[in-house]
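tool_call: predict_structure(chain=1)
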Amino acid sequence: MRPAQLAEFFRQLGDRVVETDSCFWYSPQPFIFKSLSFHKYVKPSRAELLKVLMMGPAVALRYPSAPEDGGPVGAMYICDDRNYDFASLSQNVRSHTRRGLARCDRVEQIDFDYLARYGHALNEETTMRQMGCLPDTDDQHWQRYCAIAARTPDVEAWGAFVGDQLATFIVGMLIEDCYYIHLQKSASSLLKYYPNNALLFTVIKAKMACPEVKFLSHGVKAFVASKGLAHFKAGMGFTLRPYSEQLAFNPLLKPFLMWKGDAIVSRFAQRYPDNQFWLRASRALRLATGDLPSTLEDEDEEPDHRPTNLQHSDFAEPRA
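tool_result:
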């Protein structure tokens, strides 16, 4: 898939898309734009940034640049192990993965017609489990998502089954030489069978055997991430590839954001400590003001107590 095709995918989903000389930009959340492709460093000019901020319109832009460009350190989870197998896993995750493969009756590629019928329930369960609320997309949006994915080149779905029940699924896409894991959702009642381990292992092993795939990406390390999730991804053979985290604010709004925005958002983040939106917004403003030297700081946060075989969509990943 070329970047233009990826941009068209998100445009059809209803996201605003802006093209500049360096790359495409899309808006997964209202008034927030990110660069496409996800895995590429970009170095847009000031004129390009202003074009997106004004034409989007956008409150802020977020994009990765080369580590030597300076700025807060971010990182993307990648796996480029051509010999990926059980030896690539940590001891604990290896045990869980073997159990998952033994307990799942099938782990295979599935079509989007099937996913359209059975995937939304898992999407709702995953969001409720991790965020404490239902996703802001309904079944109609999910049906449209699957229809668009089905006709987009190099986008595919995989699933793991316990009996005849879909336990977890992945939507992945080949973007140039990167296989990007766009979504991974699972059924809460079937997590004890370790389907996430079984499915992710199967997909990584299959894709790293493809000559056109240089590496896999499981998204970037989030502004707010669970320590258990970071350990899970590391245990599954992913490493962190660093980049410089760049954030640009709309010049018409930046004075207010820098003057009062940080204090207001921080107050909401303290009042609602379980609300991911306010935690992420607080970190974004701290990043912009230079108070957050690295987006990897969340490694030192207290871990939550979810089982480490759970998966969720990172902040920088697109939403379905």
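agent: Residues 9 and 152 are 7 Å apart (CA to CA). Proceeding to next step.
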